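User: Here's a chain of 111 residues. Predict its fold as tokens.
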Amino acid sequence: MPSNSNHRDLREQVAAEKKLRNIVFYSIAAIILIYAAATLFFGEMGFIKFFHLNNTKKKLETEIVQIERQNRELKTQVKSLKEDPFYMEKRAREDYGLAKQDEYIFKFEDK
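Assistant: Prediction complete.
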């Protein structure tokens, strides 16, 4: 009978060691998985950083389009100021309040 008891003790010891090995394995696997998930979402090249950079890119692209439109408008104004005497006169009258000789300018103010 002592050998049967030894067998049972040996089986319990092997089962306990397997259980411990499984616990260690799954704990390490869980830690690695949690680390990988945290890095994937919060890391330097993670999803959160990606979405932030994507939003910044969209804002900058919108700003570029607006600046290009303003640039085209300014180029048109410069060309008109260089080549069109009527436009030069119009801008001088509107922006600087200039008038021709014997011409009066009336300014109305809202109260």
